[in-house]
């Protein structure tokens, strides 16, 4: 079993940036593709980005391309999501998830989930 803990969320103004972190327990975390999903108030989860075990490949949702950057530091058992040029519609709880069995863009494929970190973007 892998335990995931997100951090780095907060309240920012539109146009601002945050660096979200997903810290994992377990020695084998580095073998897992790891994704970020988000859930806005009253909405369902949506895919944000995913990164391969060694840092490649990466895939992004259309809304994230050019604004969000996923990276990982396997020595720290941590995956990051740099979120730039934030918009109010980015307000959501952001979750990390690891070890997809299936499509890397499909939240149902992931075996491990964190508790989420809140990102709130003001106008």
Which structural class do the helices and strands define? mainly beta
Beta-strand content bin: over 45%
Task: Please bin the fraction of helical residues.
Answer: under 10%
Assembly state here?
single chain
Low-confidence stretches: none
Mean pLDDT: 94
Beta strands, count: 11
Span of the ends, CA to CA: 40 Å
Largest sheet: 7 strands, mixed
Helix count from the secondary structure assignment: 0
Radius of gyration: 13 Å
Give the SSE order as H and E letters. EEEEEEEEEEE
Shape: globular
Topology:
Elements: E1 4-7, E2 10-13, E3 18-24, E4 34-39, E5 46-51, E6 58-60, E7 68-73, E8 78-83, E9 92-100, E10 110-113, E11 117-122
Parallel strand pairs: 2-11
Antiparallel strand pairs: 1-3, 3-8, 4-5, 4-9, 5-6, 7-8, 9-10, 9-11
Description of the molecule:
By secondary structure, this protein is mainly β. It has no helices and eleven strands. The chain has strands at 4-7, 10-13, 18-24, 34-39, 46-51, 58-60, 68-73, 78-83, 92-100, 110-113, 117-122. The chain is globular, with a radius of gyration of 13 Å.
Quick recap of the structure?
The protein has 123 residues and is an all-beta fold. The protein has strands spanning 4-7, 10-13, 18-24, 34-39, 46-51, 58-60, 68-73, 78-83, 92-100, 110-113, 117-122. The protein is globular, with a radius of gyration of 13 Å.
What labels would you give this structure?
123 residues, seven-stranded mixed β-sheet, mainly beta, four-stranded antiparallel β-sheet, single chain
